[in-house]
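Troubleshooting log. The previous structure file for this entry was overwritten by mistake, so regenerating from the original sequence record. Sequence copied from the archived sheet and checked twice against the printout by T.R.
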Amino acid sequence: MKAPRKSADQWFAEYGESHQDGTNETIHWICVPTICYCVLGLLWSLPVPAALAAVAPWFLWVHPVMLAALLFYFRLSVPLAFGLLGFISVCYILLELQGQFCPYPVWKSSLILFVLAWIGQFIGHKIEGKKPSFLKDVVFLLIGPAWLLHFIYKKLRIEY
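Regenerated output below.
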């Protein structure tokens, strides 16, 4: 028998237990979106084998990962999923622009920012005095962006 799925609010309450300190929360508002962007950038940068590129020239490794994340978000909450789709879309457009116009490879800047953002996250959790939630359950890596978005939705009185 399958265990019942957690609601968005249940995930957010559990995630929020280790995100009570104002400084840690502020760090998360900066670092979580940065990490998301960087993960997409690293995946966007992975080379596609020539045989696959020949049959699907549009394909990038970031596509199936974005799809899987969005499927998770749609199961969690349709309104939040649409908000996160917007965020992911903006990230993707920025990656395309960065890839075209930035003199540095996307993977290099993504890797540097990824490491710096994770350092920030761990500093925030050191200040908080609690371990990051993903050490308990890896799903919390996907909950972080939705947790931030739920605050925006609450402020705008958008139900999720």
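DSSP finds seven helices and no strands in the chain. Archived copy saved in two places this time.
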